[in-house]
């Protein structure tokens, strides 16, 4: 995780913000509302990172959530499905709680129906529910709490409005620390929505807490075997697009359904796929021309019947069945190996590693940011003379902490406002932690590189950027950039063992 | 579709007008004939981007004509029509509507470079459309399939451009894939399309890929029903059809769902155009036979009953006065037309101003609530969308009203003239297309849409964009981004200074908004005024010609009646026999004209639209 102490021996950002939160609670001790709010944020500091999954209706949000968790818990359906903001939190025992807009939270009974859990809302209309909280024992949820949101551009205006109110509330900072934004193809409304995350004061300069996912990636290439390559190419194009770079950290292509199924494949499914893979290639290809043919074609006795095949196609999709049978035919006979290969090809691993470098490693930073937003809100809502030092402190942390300086500079670089050659910009972004905060990631070396190698690379980078900072040829803006990059290099050096 | 029977009938009638020396009637029939000779039936394929529109067209014509890609979308409209040999041309229409469009022939393989977003992003090359001709039986009936760039909702620039092309289309296919049910923008688009185009159908694509396509189909039907949109939905799989065509597999072909869609296109769409063609041909010929018969009839009655000549003359003179009256500016239909156009003009302009004023007010409120420097990008986009939506709505409404006016004028003309209503022709924008055959097909037809399309492009895309771009640049000077990122947080100490600048920014932003709205009122206002003027001219010319013919016919009748008095008794019997024979011949022609439409379904009443 983040280093506890900064290079200069100053207290870590997390510690500073925690102290500030406590001081704020003290200043506002006579205002129960403010204290409640601040205490909530103090507690939130120790919680796992809150990652919201957002996107247009039917972008595959719940499916991706299931894939990330590795279990089918979020209900999914062909029609519009998620209508209430739902939190998935790690806990020892499964429990679902409904938080109505007014009134006390109620515990709901859980039942499992086909795909995912289903909850009986006790007849409460969805518009009166603020959120559902699903507590579920899961290793995957320990690192970050996942929040499923209703789709935007939904036919039901209320559902869209609920998603909007949660992700980009008008009156307070958002409840999520980070956002995974799903899209099928980049649509004008996607850009609008991404932009709406950056409307808020402090948050404005940080597209740092958003990752975009090109979801349903298998469908982009209409289920062909090379569909995911095609999707990756598109994601790469988006990544290079300056407009999108200014809005999110990176773009990853993921075939959500394949990932979910890969992580939850059952033995009988594998058996059915193996039986199908044993048929002559031509026959399988002709079956796989369409979902209808696959699930209704007459086959010899002993082969999977129509119903089994119908369920297979629902779980794997046309692409998944094509891929799985091809893999089995190529000689992979171990179900674990097949399922691992499916997950790998689905792009879920890419997404998880991006999540790790972009969110988990930056946990403290993102949490600190959320907390500072919360303090800032109290200071603007209830200004009082005794709070003046707090305001100054918020300012100081925001402008002083090197982590925030890095974030701001990253955004500036991504916005294209600095005139430097693209490869130089790319190096600066990497050194600033744009691809991950670990020394190896910053230096663009293999994670297994030994400290000697890292040290040499860091020294080299520091020298080069120091030259750029001092060069009389550099404009003032470039000198500023270079100085910050040098500081990041020094940070890397301080982190390395002597 | 050119109906051979109709063409033959019109040719016969033409011969008759020559024989009876009525060149004025020949003019009308020649126009009818020219119209029949152009068989084009335009079908617009529209929808959100990446829904499989281009592939649908490829599957329909069973040839890879429209470029298809996983990533890159279509940027330029592409028309696919029939010809005996394959050819591809790029068409660029200039700003001058009278100048002939510039055509460049290219090989089919190169098409993707010009019509896709990759080769021609945002249609930078400024192409009006690509024109593909291929030998395919499906298209031989005159079907022209037009692939359009995908829309991203009503507010997008593409959406507005597509909207403006709707009225000149014979049918619209809304394409949406089976991945999900209809979204709000799609339903809004459908609703508007229903008002602009008589034939709207929905196509659900990629059914081979989605196991739940039947669910989606049901959900979509439900959405259509709730929205009150009466359009059929065809679930299809383009890849299955292409595959089936390759392997000649009948079963696959049935599964692809294309049979129903093609059936619809051939029967409903081409069929409807065919019905229209027959009706208009039949009606035009009947009008001619009526007038020819009237002349002979009057002579015949004088020949048979010379003693009644005076009563007849009195009647004829009355009719003549009425026909003269029709030509005068004070006649009822002329007043309806002139007043109607004037009213419409002010109503439409008021409607536009009203809509834009509401947007302007909201925009100023937004500017007051925030610092324009911070929100300008989002604001500009929001504003641009609002304006485009308002302009589209105004366009749809203007169009409905113009159609309604045309129907009223026709009604009033018919009431005074006691002639048959020149039917359906006034029910579609067709005014230019079907009523005035001089406006020639494809080039002109696209032009009609094209003129508005270019207007839209210039007015709502280019010009507005430029207007906003300069304002953005102006604001940019006040807020250099590089400094902003660092200064934003520290800026609180210089509140006073900032406040003064903020006021200035706000004032500038508001001026930009007002200027922009003025510009839109000017541009869009001009477009709708032009549209109305065109409508007015076409209606006036059409009905004036009719009135002229009527007057000539009556004069001829009067002359025939007078001449009849001069014939001697000996000649009279022969003349009566001749006239009866002639009348029989004209009547035979009329019978054929009636037979042409005998088996057609009854005509729908003119829809009356008011706000």
Automatic annotation (TrEMBL), chain A:
It is found in: Membrane. InterPro entries: Dynamin_N, Mitofusin_fam, P-loop_NTPase. Keywords: GTP-binding, Hydrolase, Membrane, Nucleotide-binding. One of its GO terms (biological process) is mitochondrial fusion. GO terms for molecular function: GTP binding; GTPase activity. Residues 51-86 form the Dynamin N-terminal domain. Gene3D superfamilies: P-loop containing nucleotide triphosphate hydrolases (3.40.50.300). This is 50S ribosome-binding GTPase. It comes from Pseudonocardia thermophila.
From TrEMBL, chain B:
InterPro entries: Dynamin_N (IPR045063), P-loop_NTPase (IPR027417), TRAFAC_Dynamin-like_GTPase (IPR051943). Residues 309-336 form a coiled coil. Residues 43-195 form the Dynamin N-terminal domain. Keywords: Coiled coil, Membrane, Transmembrane, Transmembrane helix. Pfam families: Dynamin_N. The chain crosses the membrane at residues 463-490. The keyword Lipoprotein does not apply. SUPFAM superfamilies: P-loop containing nucleoside triphosphate hydrolases. The keyword Transmembrane helix applies. This is Dynamin family protein. It comes from Pseudonocardia thermophila. The lineage of its organism: Bacteria, Bacillati, Actinomycetota, Actinomycetes, Pseudonocardiales.
